[in-house]
Design goal:
It contains two helices and nine strands; from the N terminus they run αββββββαβββ. By secondary structure, the protein is an alpha+beta fold. It has a single domain, classed as Immunoglobulin-like (Sandwich). The longest helix has 14 residues. InterPro entries: Self-incomp_S1.
Length: 137
């Protein structure tokens, strides 16, 4: 069996990186989560990435929480949120995942939390898409 030379492997990796196209990244992405539960229900929300903790939020009905961030050049940017309200507790969802959202919400990633589930705005089509459903009781 032939064992690869460390210098040869390093050189191959450098060539692959040099010839790989640079990931197209936008300067900033605006993310928002809007409470559309109705009936005066409050939404508890805690969003974070590997590097940024946005803290605990309490969002009243028809109000929104938003933040802005830059996509990293490696294409691994991920913001996830844990939310809860009177019928659902500690539900986790990805509010931004580069792999899923780089086209769907390139500059604006908007979410609506409703009693039916979570809807995401598709910037390409202009339509709200049903993305997440609540777990069965």
């Amino acid at each position: 069996m032939i064992k690869p030379n460390g210098a040869l492997v390093l050189m191959m990796v450098m060539i692959i990186i040099a010839w790989s196209p640079v990931l197209p990244v936008s300067a900033n992405v605006q993310a928002s989560i809007t409470n559309k539960l109705g009936g005066g229900k409050n939404l508890s929300l805690h969003c974070q990435s590997k590097d940024d903790d946005l803290g605990q939020q309490n969002i009243s009905n028809d109000a929104s929480f938003s933040w802005e961030f830059s996509v990293n050049p490696w294409g691994t940017t991920l913001f996830f949120c844990v939310l809860g309200w009177e019928s659902v507790g500690n539900y986790e969802f990805d509010a931004y995942s580069f792999a899923r959202d780089r086209v769907r919400c390139e500059n604006r990633c908007a979410w609506l939390v409703s009693a039916e589930g979570i809807y995401g705005l598709n910037d390409q089509t202009g339509f709200w898409e049903y993305v997440y459903s609540w777990p069965a009781p």
